[in-house]
Specification:
Chain A is mostly helical. Chain A has a single domain, classed as Up-down Bundle (3 helical TM bundles of succinate and fumarate reductases). Chain A has helices at 24-34, 36-53, 65-93, 105-131; strands spanning 2-5, 8-11, 97-98, 101-102. In chain A, the strands form two sheets. Chain A has a two-stranded antiparallel sheet. Chain A has a two-stranded antiparallel ribbon with strand order 3-4. In chain A, strand 1 and strand 2 (8-11) form a beta hairpin. Chain B is α+β, with helices and mostly antiparallel strands. Chain B has two domains: 5-106, Beta-grasp domain (Ubiquitin-like (UB roll), Roll); 109-243, Alpha-helical ferredoxin (Fumarate Reductase Iron-sulfur Protein, Chain B, domain 2, Orthogonal Bundle), CATH 1.10.1060.10. Chain B has helices spanning 37-48, 109-117, 139-143, 156-160, 162-166, 173-183, 191-198, 212-216, 223-239, and strands at residues 5-12, 22-29, 67-70, 73-76, 90-93, 100-102, 105-106. In chain B, the strands form two sheets. In chain B, strands 2-1-5-3-4 form a five-stranded mixed sheet. A two-stranded antiparallel sheet of chain B has the order 6-7. Classes of the chains: A mainly alpha (132), B alpha+beta (246). Chain A binds chain B through residues 2-3, 5-6, 8-13, 15, 19-20, 22-23, 25-26, 29, 33, 89, 92-95, 97, 100-102, and chain B through 13, 15-16, 18-21, 72, 96-97, 99-101, 107, 109, 140, 143, 162, 165-166, 208-212, 215, 222, 224-225, 228-229, 231-232. The complex binds iron/sulfur cluster and FE2/S2 (inorganic) cluster (FES). Residues 56-59, 61-66, 76, 78 of chain B line the site of FE2/S2 (inorganic) cluster.
Chain lengths: 132, 246
């Protein structure tokens, strides 16, 4: 699109809607951003189930079936990817010094990954414990 | 033996004649393995078509004026070797996300305005008299900002940033990295003056961490890191008691 800028006529290219297909990096960025969506939908479904459970066993019809299992696996994959990318980026964000030296980012990333694994293991154990 | 050649497809745009840019192909001799895209453009300008317009100066990755899109990637044309592309043709276009003035020359007015807006100079509450000697810094103090001071204002990061491409109001990678460079300089006392620009919705918070700015940066400035760290710092200044102190 040509337009005037001061005394000069310039041409301004607009970003095409397909900009995210230009580079693999852009593509994975969009996947990262959208990976929160299946997780959000899954959590909304879970909230719906918890609400219906409040009405007692009679009104409680947990979601099941092949479709829901497939969707849950997809949501799990995306939420793992989202968490992994988020925690990896934390190495670039968190910064502090120890005795005048910048603390390296890899222990920060690993510490978070380990904490993530411990918390996940605890939740799995707690769910199993309640179910038995 | 026939002379080795390479084809350069360059964007042409004459604001007085053309409604939109178009590509023009030039086949030029590829005589020397050390030739870079800028050499090819200089060959075209000297021997084939003197009307081709582009910016350059140092030819050694220092002045930051020769940034272009080379086969769709943001690069300094003086650092892009023809040997890495030959025998395929090389597509040379002006930097993405900026208005085109002519051929490969972009309008950098917006970038200049953004750089100036973060006050990229040392701000002091009280000036130290020149006669009092040097303002000394330890190595650790210099290390605090050295990486962010390597910027050569080449604008490759802006051309690679889809956020800036979609919203020109975004302050952008180099400007925020430069603000961090001054905010972390032990001689500077201007953080509070830069904060309104940096902590703004069009400042660090517009960035969604695509990270391509750091990939294309020829100087290892890592502006994406500067932006994310500034997000954390500006938030801490807000939530930590007395965090907004100077
Ligand atoms: S941060 Fe890097 S890519 Fe951006 S203008 Fe500075 S040197 Fe160029
Ligand atoms: S000509 Fe100076 S950086 Fe390329």
């Amino acid at each position: 699109m040509a337009e005037e800028s001061g005394n000069t006529r310039v041409y301004r290219k607009t970003m095409p809607p397909s900009w995210w297909t230009r580079k693999a990096h852009y593509f994975w960025y969009v996947v990262r951003e959208f990976s929160a969506l299946p997780l959000a939908i899954w959590l909304l479904l879970l909230l719906g189930e918890i609400r219906s459970a409040a009405n007692g066993p009679a009104g409680y019809h947990p979601l099941g079936g092949t479709g829901f299992v497939i969707f849950s696996v997809i949501a799990l994959f995306f939420s793992l990817y989202h968490s992994y990318t988020f925690l990896s980026l934390s190495g670039a964000i968190i910064h502090f010094k120890v005795i005048d030296r910048q603390f390296p980012s890899w222990p920060i990333v690993w510490a978070q990954m380990i904490m993530w694994a411990i918390v996940s293991a605890f939740i799995i154990w707690a769910l199993w414990w309640f179910s038995t | 033996m026939a002379e080795k050649t390479i084809t350069i497809q360059a964007t042409r745009f004459d604001p007085d004649k053309d409604a939109r840019p178009h590509l023009q192909s030039y086949e030029i001799p590829f005589i020397d393995e050390s030739m870079v895209v800028l050499d090819a453009l200089n060959y075209i300008k000297t021997h084939v078509d003197g009307s081709l317009s582009y910016r350059w100066s140092c030819r050694m990755g220092i002045c930051g004026s020769c940034g272009m899109m080379i086969n769709g990637q943001s690069k300094l044309s003086c650092s892009a070797f023809l040997r890495d592309y030959w025998p395929k043709p090389i597509l040379v276009e002006p930097l993405n996300n900026f208005p085109i003035i002519r051929d490969l020359v972009i309008d950098m007015e917006d970038f200049m305005h953004k750089l100036k807006s973060i006050k990229p100079w040392i701000i002091r509450k009280t000036e130290i008299p020149l006669g009092s000697g040097e303002h000394r810094q330890t190595n650790a103090q210099i290390d605090d900002f050295r990486q962010f001071s390597e910027c050569i204002n080449c604008m490759l990061c802006y051309s690679a940033c889809p956020v800036y491409g979609l919203n020109n109001e975004f302050r952008g990678p180099a400007a925020i990295a430069l603000a961090r460079r001054y905010n972390h300089d032990s001689r500077d006392e201007g953080t509070k003056e830069r904060l309104p620009v940096i902590a703004d919705a069009e400042g660090v918070w517009e960035c969604s961490f695509v990270g391509e700015c750091s990939v294309v940066c020829p100087k290892g400035v890592d502006p994406a890191k500067a932006i994310q760290q500034s997000k954390l710092d500006t938030s801490l200044r807000f939530v930590v008691p007395f965090g907004n102190r100077e």
